[in-house]
Amino acid sequence: MKLHITGETQTLEKGIDILSHELNFTRSNNGHPIHIAQQNGPLTIKNDHNQGKITFQEPIHFYRGLGLWIENYQKQQTFDITEEPQFKMNGVMLDASRNAVLTVGGIKEMLRKMAIMGLNTLMVYTEDTYEVEDYPYFGYMRGRYTEKELKLCDEYATHLGIEMIPCIQTLAHLTEALKWNYAIELRDTADILLAGEQKTYNFLEKIIKAASKPFKSNRIHIGMDEAHQLGLGKYLDKHGYEERFSIMNRHLKEVVATTKKLNLNPMIWSDMYFRLGSKRGAYYDLEAEIPEDVIKSIPDAQLVYWDYYHTDEDFYQTFIQKHKQLKSGPIFAGGVWTWNGISPNYGKAIATTEAAMTACKKENVQETFVTMWGDNGAETPWITALPVLQLYAEHAYYKNVTSDHVAERFKFCCDGQYDDFMALNQLDETPGVSENNLHESNPSKLLLWQDLLIGLYDKDMQGLPLNNHYAELTAKLKQAKQANPSWTLLFDFYQQLADVLSIKAEYGINLKEAYDTNDKTTVEHLKNQLADLKTRINSLRKKHRTIWFTLNKPFGWEIIEIRYGGVLARIDTVEHRLHQWLTGNIDTLEELDAERLPFEGPYPMPDGSLGRNLYHRIVTAGNLS
C-alpha cells in the first residue's frame, strides 16, 4: 500500500519509517493522501472523497491512529472514527529477572506492537540484569543488559512515542544480586538489603545511576515490595527489634533522597504499607490501619497499587480510594498472567482486567500499566501476552470494550486469530478446573514436570479424563497453527505440549492402578509407551528451545533445559525399574507401594482448583537443593 502522508510529520518521521515495515506500506507522492494534524483533543481518523486525515494529541496516538486508518481503509473506503484516550499513561512492564531476558531485537518487536496498539510506556523489570560499574558480580551470567543495549531500546521507543522507565529493586527481591560474597555486608536477609547502613546507600546510589543512565525519562520505579522479613535478619542482630514502619520509611527516605539528587521522580509498589498495617500481614486487607503519623511521613514517591487477583470492580474502587488516602495520584498495575506455569491464564487475566480497568476509569486513575511477570523460570513465552496487551490498549481508548472489538483489533495489530490464542487457555482449564481458571490452576505445568513413579499430584488428578482432553486440544492447536502463520513457532510448541500430556497426564495414575492389582500385562504396555513418550518430550524440549532463542538471550535457558533433562532421565529410570519388576529381579517397587495422598493434605484445594505450585515442589517430596 502506498501512502502520501503530509502535515506535521517532523517529529514522527523515524517512527513512520519503523512502522512502514510492520504495517506493510510505503511512502510515495503518488500514494493515498493522509493529512495529519497535532492538536489537543481526541484521536480522529477519517477518509472521505479519497482524502485521509488523522488528528492526534500525543505521538503515540498518531501511531495507533495510523494503524487504525490502514485497518479501516482495507475494509471500507469511507469512515470517520473518534477515540477518547482514557489515561495519560497506559503501558507494559516486562519481567527480565526470572531467567528470560528479552533480546534487544525482542524489545524492539514489543515496542512496535505497543505503538500500533497505542500503549505509551514500557518498563523492563531488572532486579540485577543490568550492568553496574564496580560490581562485576551484579547480574553475572544472568544475561544482564549493557548500558548500550538499553540506550538503543530507549532511542527506538522514543521514535515510537513510548517512554521507557527503569524498573528496579532497592530493598527486597534481590536474592540473585545478593547471593555473591561482595554483598555480605549489604544483606539483612537472603533477599533484603540491610537498611540503615551507609554501605547500603552507597551501593544503591551506584545501581540507581546505572539503571537510569540509559534512559531519557526522569522517572524510575524503585520497587520496595514484599519485604516480608524486613529488619528480622542481620538488622535484628545489630539493632534489636524495631517497628518495621520506621525501618521502611527511613530506608525509603534515603533512597528517595538519592533519586532526587539524580533528578529522578520515583514510584514504589505500595503493598508494604498495607501489609504492615494489617493484623494478618496481608496486602488486600480492607481492615488494614496505617497510622496517621506514618502516612504523613511517607516520602515523596508515587504509590503503585498492584492487583492481578480480584474480579470484583467494587474491590478495586475501594482499594484505589484507600491509596488516594495515603497519597494522591496512585498508579494502577494489573497483570497478563503469563506466570501461571508453562501456558497463559487468559481467563483470569481478562476477568481481572475488565474489573480493574472499569474501576480505574470510574476513579479517574490517570496512569496504569500491566505486568508481564515470569515467575518460576519464565516458562511461558512473552508473546502469549499480546491478546491481553490488546485488551489493555482498547480500554485505554474506550470506556467500554467488547471481546469482538478486541479480537478484530488483535487480528490487525498482531496478525493473530484471537479465538485460537484463547484456546491456549485450555492447557490449564482442564476437566476439574473452574471456568476461566480463576483459582490459577496450572495442570499443564504439574503434569509435564511431575515424576511418573512418585506422582505427587496423581491423587488430585484421579478420575479426570485428562488424556482425552489433551488429545482433543492437540488437534485444535494443530488447526490454530495452520490458521496463524505468523505464530507457527508458538502454536507448534503448545501443540507438542498438549501431545505430550495426552500420554503423560494419566500415566502415573494408570501405572499405580495396574501395579496395585498386579496387572503385569498393563504394566508391560505402559513400559512400552515410555520410548514414545521420551521422543515426544525431547521434541517438546527442542521446540521450546527454538522459541526461547528466538526471543531471549541464552542465559536462563539452562534452568528450563535442566527441567527437561530431569524428566528424560527419570523416564530411563522408570523403564529400568519396571523392567526389573516385570522380570522378577525385584519383588516390589517402593515408589508405587507408597500411598497417594492429596497434595494439600488435610486442607483440600478449593473446588475447581488443581493446584498451583513451583517446580521444586512438583518433582519431589524431598529437598531439591
Explain what you see:
The protein is α/β, with parallel strands linked by helices and 625 residues long. The protein is 46% helix and 12% strand. It is built from 24 helices and 14 strands. It has helices spanning 13-22, 59-75, 104-117, 147-159, 175-178, 198-212, 234-239, 244-261, 271-276, 292-297, 313-326, 346-362, 386-395, 403-414, 418-422, 443-449, 458-461, 466-483, 488-504, 507-516, 520-551, 557-582, 590-593, 615-618, and strands spanning 2-7, 26-27, 32-38, 43-48, 51-56, 79-83, 89-95, 121-125, 163-167, 219-221, 265-269, 302-306, 331-335, 367-372. Strand 8 (121-125), helix 4 and strand 9 form a beta-alpha-beta unit. The longest helix has 32 residues, at 520-551. The chain starts with a strand and ends in a 7-residue tail after the last helix. The mean pLDDT is 97.
Quaternary structure annotation = single chain
Helix content: 40-55%
Q: Report, as a whole number of angstroms, the end-to-end distance.
A: 57 Å
Query: What about the largest sheet?
Result: 8 strands, parallel
DSSP strand content: 5-15%
Gyration radius, in Å: 26 Å
Kindly name the structural category. Answer: alpha/beta
